[in-house]
Structure prediction request, 202 residues.
Amino acid sequence: MQVAVTMFDYAMRIDAMPGEQHSGDHGVIQQREGMLTAVLLDVLGHGDKAAVLADAVENHLQGCDMTTAEPLDLMMNLHDTFRGSRGLVASIARIDTDAEMLEYCGVGNIGVRILGSHATIMVNRDGVVGYRMVPPRQQHFPFTAHDTLLMHSDGIKSHFDADIVAQVPQRSAQVLLDRLFARYVKGIDDAGALVVRVSACK
Ligand SMILES: [Mn+2]
Prediction:
């Protein structure tokens, strides 16, 4: 008999800009069995006003069952719900370990890539969620055991050294995040990132 075991290893880290107490970058992760949905968002601006909206968006998402929603539908829901706010950029990914696929929708400046055997750099649609955006689309990518999803806000430099990427197979999600923050935080904005990896699909 074969027993299905899904091993997600994930971590999230958000550092407010130096001198600020609260961050306008937030991450939300929900997992249910072999499905995991991860959202990274960056509210326009920084400081307390950005943090208030980021809290509201996070609370709204936590009230949704994100693992059963399509990322595109979640994005359109955020756009409608937070219309007229100061706006945000967001990336939404749902990993389905049974299908070995990742469904993806992103708007605005969040860096997103898959590292591993299915290495890909995602290209987000332009725009501001809650204000004006090019109609977003949902894309799907293969995502199997030992692949790693990395999302980061623009408070982190996007040109990681090859050594960080090379360490991906050996390191935990938390160690990867901490190395990224130690070397690539700009320090002039909030910095947020999350890492999700699947160590076994079946
Ligand atoms: Mn930012």
